[in-house]
């Protein structure tokens, strides 16, 4: 029974992780900050590959039946793998906020006892309460 319960808990953790990583942050949230990040992509690229092309011309060489060998550099299209740097915009919660679903929620290092956290380390106290953590009555 314990191993079945463990499997269900593990599946739930994996599912919540996948949901958390697939939900994008709301771009309209003023507490979302973004930055550009680079990443490498493997691409197939073509290039002109040089090779020695042998051809024959008429000439005065009797021993070779009036045929002389000549060389010229020619090019053919070849392919190779290459790395290309791409850029994408990454969104994350601004400093002092943490991710909850697709929003960024303010983080108060001390719990707001009789109030709520409205911005990083700032509590909005219920009427009749005060102090940095709303614990003074």
TrEMBL record:
Main location: membrane
Protein's organism: Podiceps cristatus (Great crested grebe)
Entry keywords, A to Z: Cell membrane, Disulfide bond, EGF-like domain, Glycoprotein, Membrane, Repeat, Signal, Transmembrane, Transmembrane helix
Protein name stated in the entry: Multiple epidermal growth factor-like domains protein 11
GO cellular component: plasma membrane
Name of a matching Pfam family: EMI
Membrane topology recorded in Swiss-Prot or TrEMBL: Single-pass membrane protein
Residues forming coiled coils: none
Keyword Transport applies: no
Protein localization: Cell membrane; Membrane
Positions of the EMI domain: 29-106
Secretion signal span: 1-24
């Amino acid at each position: 029974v314990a191993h079945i319960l463990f499997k269900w808990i593990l599946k739930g953790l994996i599912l919540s992780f996948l949901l958390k990583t697939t939900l994008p942050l709301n771009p309209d949230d003023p507490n979302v900050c973004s930055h550009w990040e680079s990443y490498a992509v493997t691409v197939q690229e073509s290039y002109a590959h040089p090779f020695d092309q042998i051809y024959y011309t008429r000439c005065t060489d009797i021993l070779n039946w009036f045929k002389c060998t000549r060389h010229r550099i020619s090019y053919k299209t070849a392919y190779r793998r290459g790395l290309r740097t791409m850029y994408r915009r990454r969104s994350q919660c601004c400093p002092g906020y943490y991710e909850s679903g697709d929003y960024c929620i303010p983080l108060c290092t001390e719990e707001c006892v009789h109030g709520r956290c409205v911005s990083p380390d700032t509590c909005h106290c219920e009427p009749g309460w005060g102090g940095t953590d709303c614990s003074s009555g």
